[in-house]
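Subject: for your reference before the review

Hello V.,

The reviewers asked for a structural picture of the protein, and I figured it would be easier to keep everything in one thread rather than splitting it across files. Below is the amino acid sequence we used in the manuscript, unchanged from the supplementary table.
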Amino acid sequence: MPMWFKKNAPAETKARGFKDKRSYVSIKEGVERLKLFGADMTAQRDRVIERDGYRCQYCEKRFNYYELEIDHDPIPRGKGGSDDMDNLKTACKMCHREEHVQARWSRRAEQA
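And here is what came back from the structure prediction:
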């Protein structure tokens, strides 16, 4: 059962200072993965955009805060990727969409 459904989260999770009760750290196959939700993910998004200097990491153009999105790269969240700073990068909406379309088409080509 996922940790956020448990009545009392482990002390380790509480010590990390998460604001949203759904945020947690999972340890699977010896690898620690950070999963953030709500206010915790918003704060992480702010840190990533600030770190990347409000620039898309694909086209390197500068955008305002609301035109940027966060991309889980190199490991997508759906494939076990974490919400750690090392796995997140800033992308403009156009580049983020293109990145996902390319990934989808390459998976289809592999299946054929």
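For the response letter, the relevant points are probably these. The chain has one domain: 3-111. The first strand starts at residue 24 and ends at 28.

Happy to draft the paragraph if you're swamped.

O.
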